[in-house]
Amino acid sequence: MSERWKVVIIGGGFGGLSAAQRLNSNLVDVTVIDRRNYHLFQPLLYQVATGSLSAGEVASPLRSVLSRQKNTRVWLGTVVDIDPDSKRVFLADGAIVPYDSLIVAAGSQTSYFGRNEWQEWAPGMKSVEEATAIRHKILYAFEVAERLSDPVQRRAWLTFVIVGAGPTGVELSGAIAEIARQTLKNDFRSIKPEEAQIILLDGAPRALMPFPQDLAEKATRSLAKLGVEVRCGAMVKNVDKDGLTIDSGGRTDSIAAKTVVWAGGITASPLGKIVASHAKAETDKGGRVKVKPDLTIPSYPDIYVVGDLASATDEKGKPLPGVAQVAMQGGAYAAKAILRKVKGHSELPPFRYFDKGSLAVIGRAAAVADVFGLHISGLLAWLVWAFIHVTYLVSFQSRILVFIQWAIQDLTFNRGARLITGAAPTDFNFSRELSEIKRAPVNVPR
User: Fold this and answer.
1) Residues 104-119: pLDDT tens digits?
2) 264: which of 164, 241, 306, 417 fits an S-S bond (Cβ 3.0–4.6 Å)?
């Protein structure tokens, strides 16, 4: 009996998991390699950051998801190199994994546009650790403000700035506004959380640039009703522990804010450059690997690149967006192409992305959706958003838990996962912060 075809998948995100699930065949042996032991549903990560959901409700162990596929094994490890000529993958711990077909779906990471030092003060939101750190910062800001009586210092702690007015930024700013104006409004005695200032910044001329203009305008109006200030055409020049400096229309302004969250862009995983270097492939300015219409690398038909790591275009030459839909469809296409190759069938036609639309939620019963060219907003869009997101969660248990949590939250505005966990960062240390405010008395209610 001949040895089965070996498929290695790097990354257990949307693209990698979609490919693995469709390679459930006795013709192939599949190895999924990821730095984490779980699949993360990133579109709901902002709800972890704002206390609506816990990490376990938006992440599922890869071994559990793939446990019924006896031809598939999961390895916890970090890929550091690839040899496309000898068809081997190298892990950081020294392990070497051979392959006949390789699917690279390593995803992306937060881009600070060359200013990585800003990450210390403006965390991104691409991982569970970052989401819980942001939740820590948001909730701790209210705690510090409760103990301060100096109005200037208190205002800085009650100012929240989100950089990037894409779907993530819009969703996050709306959620923070609901926390301040609904969830926490009765929880404090010395401050009024509803007086918190939430600012959404973007260098683009409007929010939600990938969306049709009418939906973007509706989203902006919905954010305004929640008290979110949207500033477009504003470029960030600096971020530090005291806030940020922006350039707006040639005018430089400073914003005193102790909580800054970065949702301003992504760049490809560093693995993309490694793959491109060894395979002599080109990359775009974001570090994504340029692929052929069948998602393979030129000269290496057994290497597929899918998801955020792939620089692919549609039939009109327009770059495909870095969204979950593209990754899932690309992963499914690569899996189908590999199985056809193993069976000796003809090659598939070029990959064609089927755009099902775009969704962004603003708050309770408020969302915008561009679904198959139909523009909807308000409650109907919110219901569509909720249904699609629950449906795409990979585990049945997660679907039930998320549905229950959302039902409770919509009825009570309570966010049950608003826990301040882990050690407080140095910029949140009470003794240090209070000592820096010379002669400013701590606000103690009588």
Assistant:
1) 999 999 999 999 999 9
2) 164
